[in-house]
Amino acid sequence: MTVPSVVRAHVDPAAARGQQRAVTRGSLVVIGHGAFADRAEWDAATEWEQHIARLRAAQTRAPRTIVSHASAVVLHRLPWITPVPDRPTLTDPLRATAQRTRYVDKSPGVGRLLRTTLVDGLPVTELVTTAVDVVLRYDRGRSLAVADAVVRRGVAPADLSAAFAERGSVRAHRRARQVLGLAAGASESAGESVTLLALSDAGCGNVVQQHVFRDALGTIGRVDFWLPEHGLVVEFDGLAKYRDPVLRGGRSAEEVVVAEKIREDRLRALPEVRGVVRPVWRDVVPGGRFPSMLLDAGVPVSRGLRVVPSW
Fold this sequence. Notes:
Elements: E1 7-8, H1 13-25, E2 28-32, E3 35-38, H2 39-44, H3 47-61, E4 66-67, H4 69-75, E5 89-92, E6 99-100, E7 105-108, E8 116-119, E9 122-125, H5 127-137, H6 140-152, H7 157-166, H8 173-182, H9 190-201, E10 208-215, E11 218-227, E12 232-234, H10 240-243, H11 245-248, H12 253-268, E13 275-277, H13 281-284, H14 290-296
Parallel strand pairs: 5-7, 12-13
Antiparallel strand pairs: 1-3, 2-3, 4-5, 6-7, 8-9, 10-11, 11-12
């Protein structure tokens, strides 16, 4: 990860005017109050790297603050369903109310026990606090993806529940409890977390994640979700394995497609498997066709089951 360098505004008036001319010409990009980045570095950076540069600029200007919420997700390199917010989020231990400016969102920290750590030299909420902050502020899909990833890193689900209980009476507590109740860490990607959420909303209770299937030839592999009562395999298809050279492992996209087809044929040949469905992102997001895919596969869907808000 190559984060663009933060260039501070010059105190010298003549030098400061030179920086403003560079902004006008486009060779410098304004990324915060009195902070710039080189245009070439900025354009070469990912949105995650750009966000870290922005939060570096913001936190340096307000050194008592702590990187939190979505910005903490970015700094911890946890999964985040795009887009990454333009403005960094910082928690101010001395603020009692939220504040939004052109370049930063400040969250109130008065009365909160803020557990922090250092990442890349910046003070940031530690994993448990970050996950609970996200669950309480953002939609369920992003929240579960973050909570799952935190559990995969070794945080006990009970620790998340305890940190949530410390917050006392909060808004959206039912939604938060549902998300934390699903965060077992078995999902290996944000897409799998969102698919698990969609399965829960559809009323699918007995869902086994990362189930390993075998046949006479040996191990077929792990599947994302196995619904044993219905003999259904659900494989979230994020398409990255076809596009990312690292995930392809030296194979062409065509070779990956063929391997996936052979794998699926072996799964379908098993006596206990009655069907395989492969939803993509647009299927599992709210309003997608995943419930219809489940119905077509013979799985009853409780359309009226939802007792929590959607995303």
